[in-house]
UniProtKB/TrEMBL annotation:
This is Sigma-54 dependent transcriptional regulator. Coiled coil: none annotated. The keyword Transcription applies. It comes from Luteolibacter soli. Residues 10-123 form the Response regulatory domain. Keywords: ATP-binding, DNA-binding, Nucleotide-binding, Phosphoprotein, Transcription, Transcription regulation. It comes from the Bacteria. The keyword DNA-binding applies. The lineage of its organism: Bacteria, Pseudomonadati, Verrucomicrobiota, Verrucomicrobiia, Verrucomicrobiales. SMART domains: AAA, REC. The modification 4-aspartylphosphate is found at D58.
Length: 452
């Protein structure tokens, strides 16, 4: 183990190859860093202290490997950005490093310039309040959602961008309305498949037989109503991205079929006997705890691990309140652009009300509230009065018997439905779950009460 300790070092270089160590030290100094070196995983842990701003970590180390070192370093300092150096063609390690929280990875041999560009960006990210992610997305116009004032979300964005280029299956987790679909589209947009199709499929929206046919296609005559042969979404998305929303609702009968297609890329159409192949990249999303579903036997463990190659968890809005001003401005800008009007600002009191609220329906609810608040004002500034009545408390709305007046069943249904629908920020799947009905019933209710 070689370990050189310099006071106030801010970059830890971990590599057992002394030539590379020396090279990196010289380059680091040239780029204004104060390097410290370690030649092993345990050495890296010894060398870590609060002054270290970032780590460059080789995977092939003599004692504990780079991934284990990464895990221990991040357990010691959860926000520590680590750039992993992996071997050529070692995509698996790269994926595992990103899953374990690496900020980025580089395959050896790499250009020093690329490494120090990444390190510079890490510094910028850490010092600036609102930044755009680097790399592929920087070449495109940075989307609103790819900015964050929250360190945890910035890290997520970096991992997301990296994962976009890898073609691996991704599992997006997070509460309803946190932006899983939005992120899935962004991942597709940042991926090499950007010019191909992005095909979303909502698992609970269809009954089992139709979902199977939707995903895998069917042969003519394979069931009543199958009047013609139809290609499924896996075929259509073969060059692009297939987004499986609410994957936790995938019926048990379809889980083995999805597992097969993820493992072997092969499947049959419903009623078909010809093996078909697909190259679709799969992004799945869930707002339920799939672990718990595995534990209670309603979701296959092997499928869970197949889907969860890279997990990206989007925190709820109440845990990233620093992002509220940026998201509010972005959403207001979007509404203004759509309506062809000026945009709006929030008065200090309105901003405070927004910040104090818990946003159970997350970004979708924020969007709905801003849509409604801006619909009825001629002013450029939204005040507390424009917003507060739209921020419902969970206890509100139980007006089934308000004023002792007897309601018709139709009215009660409408109120109960609307309450759940608003509380979930207009999310149909979650409304369905809250009310214990199917998602199709939610569509019927919207229709029946003239809310479509
Ligand atoms: N980062 C963001 N910036 C701006 N708008 C966003 C962002 N994330 C999400 N949104 C908007 O918030 C709304 C809800 O997002 P989205 O549908 O992606 O959530 P979701 O997590 O997929 O919800 P569900 O689990 O209910 O399907 C969308 O209209 C989306 O455009």
């Amino acid at each position: 183990m070689s370990l050189s300790r310099e006071d106030h070092a801010n970059l830890l270089i971990v590599d057992d190859d002394e030539t590379i160590q020396r090279l990196l030290v010289i380059a680091a100094k040239d780029h204004g860093w104060r390097p410290r070196t370690a030649g092993s995983g345990m050495g890296a842990l010894d060398a870590l202290d609060d002054s270290i701003e970032a780590v460059v970590l080789d995977h092939g180390l003599p004692d504990i490997d780079g991934l284990q070192t990464l895990e221990r370093l991040r357990a010691a300092q959860p926000d520590l950005p680590v750039i992993m150096l992996t071997g050529l063609n070692d995509a698996e390690t790269a994926v595992r490093a990103l899953r374990a929280g690496a900020a980025d990875y580089l395959t050896k041999p790499f250009e020093l310039k690329r490494l120090f560009d990444l390190l510079r960006q890490i510094r910028v990210d850490r010092s600036g309040p609102v930044i755009a992610v680097t790399g592929a997305s920087a070449k495109l116009a940075p989307a609103d959602g790819l900015r964050s004032a929250d360190a945890r979300v910035r890290e997520l964005l970096r991992r997301m961008e990296k994962a976009a280029s890898l073609d691996s299956t991704i599992l997006l987790t997070g509460e309803s309305g946190t932006g899983k679909t939005y992120f899935a589209r962004e991942i597709h947009r940042l991926s090499p498949r950007a010019n191909e199709d992005f095909i979303p499929v909502s698992c609970p929206a269809l009954p089992r037989e139709l979902l199977e046919s939707e995903l895998f296609g069917h042969e003519k005559g394979s069931f009543t109503g199958a009047v013609a042969t139809r290609a499924g979404r896996f075929e259509q998305a073969s060059k692009g991205t297939l987004f499986l929303d609410e994957i936790g609702d995938l019926p048990p009968e379809l889980q083995p079929k999805l597992l097969n297609v993820l493992q072997d890329r092969e499947f049959f159409r419903v009623g078909g006997s010809k093996i078909l192949r697909t190259n679709a990249r799969v992004i799945a999303a869930t707002n339920v705890d799939l672990h718990a579903k595995v534990a209670d036997g309603s979701f296959r463990e092997d499928l869970y691990y197949r889907l969860n190659i890279i997990e990206l968890h989007i925190p709820p809005l109440r845990e990233r309140k620093d992002d509220l001003p940026g998201l509010t401005a972005a959403i207001l800008g979007r509404i203004a652009a759509r309506r062809g009007t000026h945009t709006w600002t929030l008065s200090p009191a309105a901003s405070e009300a927004v910040a104090a609220y818990e946003w159970p329906g997350n970004i979708r609810q924020l969007e709905n509230v801003l849509e409604r608040a801006t619909a009825f004002t001629d002013r450029n500034e939204l005040g507390e009065k424009d917003l507060v009545p739209l921020l419902e408390s969970r206890r509100d709305g139980h007006a089934a018997n308000a004023g002792g007046k007897v309601r018709t069943l139709h009215e009660l249904e409408r109120e109960t439905f609307l309450e759940a629908y608003r509380r979930t920020g207009g999310n149909k799947a979650r409304t369905a779950r809250e009310l214990g009905v199917s998602e199709r019933t939610v569509y019927n209710l919207l229709e029946r009460h003239g809310l479509k």
